[in-house]
């Protein structure tokens, strides 16, 4: 028989009240301010050397989207005012059962040779500028030079941290006989998402990824007195009410103490959080010792499993667990998902209060990523939380999915670099 009091003890630390969410937003806004002023802050506030596009960006460009799970090479034609066509594209995983370009046994040259050969599969034989979306915290000195500060999302490839990403890519392209493909811009995927949305919608001023990783960029109206898209690296925000499970996940991770917001909200980690909770529930007699062997393996539970569980589509479970046990598991999975969307919404509210304290202007938040696109209820929870926080001003605020913004955004950035 299910011990409901004990189950509640598991659930309680994941519940966020409106006051707690508001408090997180206030802390987030302060961290933005500190980061912009050069004070110590969990937010890196990295300038992209790009403002909003005019909508007049046109022409053919190569784009490379490197996010840590796949490599996507694209040939894109931009027509202006939000219109574009993907002429060719190629999608390849960075890790399969026969190779793993994310491992520390792989060198930067090996990784970038692999990337260049993927570009070579679709690149035409004419000279083209290339926009590169590199979705990791990178320090930029201009639109086309970025140094990786630190790997996130558990990547470990050797020799990339502290290296100039554009130089690594350019050298690999030359080694592969692709000197006619010329890197012209490097951006973060959040900036790419924002650029793609702003290409057709001038109200778009926040771009976010809610997928394997989590991060947000926004258009700072006054960065050294000019508008500038800032990659906040908000996944590293750490003023959060975390649970013992978050702490355990962090201790076992590649970089303990870093990316605490990302570790509590993103797809790379939600399944692992669920695995840690299930194991504790088993220990406390709330669940039978199902699949004990598998559940001892880190990362054995994925965010996809979490979605299946919530939809009651894990066939095995319906035979091994009672309805009560399944419901209790589903409640935990739903709480993890809800907390993720609420924390994300809190950061959005923090940004809105920073750029427009009285919420007087129109704003559009463009979001990409598997959680936002595919997890049932996720987008709705973000919207509902923002409505709760913004009250009446919500009418001038919209949120929406922008698909493949990181790849298209790279092409837009390459076009902007030309000017
Ligand atoms: C990680 C990266 C960040 C990226 C995000 C989404 O948080 O550090 O740069 O934007 O993942 O891919």
From TrEMBL:
Is this entry keyworded ATP-binding?
yes
- Matching InterPro entries: ATPase_NBD, Hexokinase, Hexokinase_C, Hexokinase_N
One GO term (biological process): glucose metabolic process
Record keywords, A-Z: ATP-binding, Glycolysis, Kinase, Nucleotide-binding, Transferase
| Domain Hexokinase N-terminal as annotated: residue spans | 7-199
GO molecular-function terms, A-Z? ATP binding; D-glucose binding; fructokinase activity; glucokinase activity
* The Hexokinase C-terminal domain, residue ranges: 206-416
Key word ATP-binding present = yes
Q: Which GO terms describe its cellular component?
A: cytosol; mitochondrion
Task: From the UniProt record, give the pathway where this protein acts.
Answer: Carbohydrate degradation; Carbohydrate metabolism
Q: Which Pfam families match?
A: Hexokinase_1, Hexokinase_2
Q: Which reaction does it catalyse?
A: D-fructose + ATP = D-fructose 6-phosphate + ADP + H(+)
Q: Per the similarity annotation, which family is this?
A: Belongs to the hexokinase family.
This protein is called Hexokinase
Q: What species is this protein from?
A: bioreactor metagenome
The record lists the lineage as:
unclassified sequences, metagenomes, ecological metagenomes
């Amino acid at each position: 028989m299910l011990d409901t009091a004990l189950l509640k003890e598991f659930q309680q630390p994941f519940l966020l009240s409106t006051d707690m969410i508001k408090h997180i937003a206030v802390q987030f806004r302060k961290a933005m301010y500190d980061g912009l002023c050069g004070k110590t802050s969990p937010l890196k506030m990295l300038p992209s050397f790009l403002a909003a596009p005019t909508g007049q960006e046109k022409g053919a460009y190569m784009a490379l989207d490197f996010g840590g799970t796949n490599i996507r090479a694209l040939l894109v034609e931009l027509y202006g005012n939000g219109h574009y066509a993907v002429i060719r594209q190629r999608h390849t995983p960075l890790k399969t059962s026969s190779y793993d370009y994310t491992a520390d046994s792989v060198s930067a040259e090996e990784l970038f040779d692999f990337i260049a050969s993927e570009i070579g599969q679709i690149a035409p034989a004419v000279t083209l500028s290339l926009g590169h979306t590199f979705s990791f915290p990178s320090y930029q000195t201009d639109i086309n030079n970025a140094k990786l500060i630190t790997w996130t999302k558990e990547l470990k490839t050797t020799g990339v941290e502290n290296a100039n990403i554009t130089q690594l890519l350019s050298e690999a392209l030359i080694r592969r006989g692709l000197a006619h493909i010329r890197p012209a811009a490097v951006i973060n995927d959040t900036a790419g998402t924002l650029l793609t949305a702003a290409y057709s919608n001038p109200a778009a001023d926040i771009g976010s990824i809610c997928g394997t990783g989590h991060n947000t960029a926004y258009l700072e109206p006054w960065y050294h007195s000019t508008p500038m898209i800032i990659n906040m690296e908000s996944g590293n925000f750490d003023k959060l009410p975390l649970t013992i499970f978050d702490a355990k996940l962090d201790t076992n991770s590649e970089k303990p103490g870093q990316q605490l917001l990302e570790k509590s909200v993103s797809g790379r980690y939600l399944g692992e959080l669920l695995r840690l909770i299930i194991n504790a529930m088993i220990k406390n007699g709330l669940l039978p010792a199902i699949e004990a062997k598998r559940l001892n393996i880190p990362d054995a539970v994925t965010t996809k499993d979490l979605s299946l569980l919530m939809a009651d589509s894990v066939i095995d479970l319906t035979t091994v667990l009672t309805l009560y046990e399944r419901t209790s598991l589903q409640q935990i999975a739903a709480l993890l998902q809800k907390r993720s969307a609420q924390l994300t919404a809190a950061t959005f509210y923090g940004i809105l209060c920073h750029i427009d304290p009285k919420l007087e202007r129109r704003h559009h938040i463009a979001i990409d990523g598997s959680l936002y696109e595919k997890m049932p209820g996720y987008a709705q929870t973000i919207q509902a939380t923002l409505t709760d926080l913004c009250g009446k001003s919500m009418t001038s605020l919209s949120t929406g999915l922008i698909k493949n913004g990181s790849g298209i955004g790279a092409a837009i950035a390459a076009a902007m670099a030309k000017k």
